[in-house]
Amino acid sequence: MEKVDVIIVGGGLAGLSCAYELADSGMTVVVLERGDFSGSKNVTGGRIYLSPLQSYLPDLWKDAPLERHVTKEFLTLLGETNSTTVGLYSDRFNHDPYPSYTILRAKFDRWLADLVSGKGIYVIPEKKVDDLIREGTKVAGIKSGDEEFGADCVVGADGVLSFIAEKAGLRQPFQPEHFAVGFKEVIELDPKTIEDRFGLGEGEGAAQLFVGSLTKGMMGGGFLYTNLESLSLGIVVGIHSLNRREPREEVYKLLDEFRERPEIKNLIKGGNPIEYSAHLISEGGIRIMPKLYGDGILLIGDAAGFGLNMLVTVRGMEYAVASGVLAGRVIKRAKEKNDFSASSLAHYEELLKDSFIMKEMEGFKNSLHLLENERLFSKYPQAISNLFEKVMTVDGGPKERLYKTIWQGLKKDFLNYQTFKDWLQFRRI
Amino acid sequence: MTELLVFSEKNDLAFELVSKGREFAGALKMGLAAALLGEKAGAEANEYFAYGADRVYVGENPALAGFNAESYAEALYQIAQKNDAKILLIPSTKRGKELAPRVAQKLGAGCVTDATAVELKDGNLLISRYALGGNTVAGEVIKTAHKVITVMPKTFELGPKEDRKGEVVKADLNLKAPRARVVERQEKVGEKVDLETAEILVCIGRGLEKKEDLKIVEQLAKALGAEIGCTKSLCTDYQWLSEDRLVGLSGKKTSPRLVISLGISGQIQYTVGIRGARTAVAINKDKQAPIFAMSDYGIVGNLYEVVPMLAEKLKSA
Amino acid sequence: MNIIVCLKQISDLKYIRIKDRKPLLEGAPFIFGDMDRNALEEAIRIKEKVEGTKVVALALGGAKLKETIKAALAIGADEAVLLTDPLFANSDTAGTARALGKAVEKIGGYDLILAGEGSTDNFSSQVGPRLAEILDLPQITYVRKLEVQGKKLRAVRNMEESFEVVEVDMPALVTVANEINQPRLALLKDILKAGKKPVQDWKAADLGLSADQVGAKGSVREVVSNLAPEQARKQVVFEGELKDVVENLFNALTKEGALGR
Fold first, then answer.
1. Bridge partners of A273?
2. Mean pLDDT in residue range A117-141
3. Does any domain span residue A311?
């Protein structure tokens, strides 16, 4: 059986980051990607936060093909026929080094794959891994088609439904409530038009999140990101919510309706839809995290369950990059000692615990429970919009005193036992 | 006088080119001639004159006994050289298409194959053909004095036949025996099906799970009075239907009043074959299938459910 | 036996986008077309059957060819000759055949030249016959089955009305049809070794060709336009209850007069 030092299964952000970290180590590293090219199967909303990644691959980002650096953040609470938007602009977001950028994965991943190939690592597309090869408890390699190929270490970077994690016996069975499905559309739009509509300067970007009636009471939300020459518009819905709903809603239909809302319609007007994609998102957090290592095996990125719904944002990409890099460091160390056993690779978990990844996964571990609260996606956004609408309305009769309007609104929708209990839950986020 | 020269191993296809060639030759002030090659090829000479040829060159050389690209290319080359034929029109059959570039190479000529349209523009011929896998139509112009064009069958209409006389010239050819020898010919059991003139077409693709299920398609075709066509998978790959029924870039280009595409995703290699349809309908269970963008009406649904119901509806209406 | 396989690098048309009728291929990966891969596969199969066979992959294309050709080497070609000189850029079929012809002569000592029936992008099917003429070789096209019998080839050609069985003494040029074989997937171990196989890159000057014999200057054909046809379809889609959608379709077609009743 042929053999290399490291086989990384999956050529997405995690896999390529791990490969990049291993590039100057002298080891033979092979990345196996099942799509036509890296990025062909990857989707994000989305936006990547670079601040947490400053100590991981610091030199990567200056030449990276990122979209716009985000200077404006919007949160929109959608009622049926009204909505309330909170917008934030900060100078802090508008100074180099910019904290976050919108990103298009097909473009970015391909660039990263080319960069990694250029460093002497084999990045092989159209290669699907069908099985792991075991020697006792040890993972000794992979099987693709009829071919067996050995490695000192196999890295599972194969995404949210990680086949490698399953084959290695590291993962528990999935529950639908741990996952959400995201549907996205990329709409081509002239950069000047984007900048005019969102009030942005050249190269600046906006990120907008939507919660409320767009998901018809199901857990989830919508997003709108500005790329250089396009908009990313999409919806995320919890699978458990989807399954429970009678009659069943199709997510792409939700996106169709979302697109028709006046808040959205005029922002995307004249745009040309060029791409549709869908992806599973792991939202279960730390509760569903698999075992992260074994004899000759490590899991990184979505395959390791590193995905988190923080309500105001969904995190995954930064975890993918950071965990890939940490895995790379652990592998280098293991090679020095020539020890790829579980006890050696356990160092990976130690590094993770010290990193922002595990600290955030721990911190937000109870957020999933809050996200199951249906009122968060229906009653509260509607009530807040209604209240704000009342405050802002000047109609036929004399306008009521503001305090009265607000107090009555609060009394009606928020001052009750249920909301109080919900508030207690909210402290968990 | 310079000439426009037509050649085809199939007379009826040659007549189409002669009919249109008459128009070009007139406008470009050229003579119109045809090459008749092989045994007894000269028999149809009068038909060529009737369609508009001034002259035919008859080449009856042992090297031309059976069609082969090598000798036929050399024969056409010699005839063209001797008679100052500057433009060669050849139908885009398989034989025509393998012959034309070789003749062009001998003549130092530019060549365009699979033309779907040829027009006179500013004294030059503007040739259209599908490009980029059928996604686009390219307009091309040949820069050299000699031009070789292969034209898709039925691109030009047969003109009226007239009572004309022409000159029969015995071509004096100097040919070597062809090096490739045909040792056997297995006639294909083809079907006499003419999709190109069908009024209504029902086309079936990979959405069909097994050969026996063709019954459902036949039911619908019967209710509509339609011919049945298919995509490459079903004929060339699975052999469930004969290749005469292949619709698409490498098959028939059809222009029916109505075409219904069943279980076909709508790859460009297929849709090129139904572009000429007046009304296009698609039935596919995948809402994102590209076929819907190429259709006037579509049903997102399982063809195994939709087709029988549609056939019923048509029968009872 | 020595085989030269001619390959054309094209953009993967799966990724083509049409904008304002113009074709956009930026971002599309480079691949070899279907029939090119059939030709290469056929060469490797002959190599496996006939001892001492060497397969050279020959291709004219842009700089990316250096990467793309690895796929051919991984499948089993022994070495590659590339023509990536910028002077060759925008060559038409005549210019390409001219350059390939010179390269084949420089490689020399071949028994069989294999190519696909046509390229998947433009399907002109010209380079094969032109090359055969340049090299004064017999051409056998549309081959769906190929056998090497000593110094002879026996081929079954897929013609419209018949399957034609043809024999020819080598050297010869053969173009293959898509149905001749199912191209294999490269093994990982061969992919890793592909980068080590010899690859040469010959410039126009190495082939004794001047700038106006190749590239755009050496073209005998000019493409004056290349646009997607006008899209005039209604794109009405019926979804919902089976009975309703069938009813809707029937009514729409009746209204259009499409049913001819």
1. A187
2. 94
3. yes
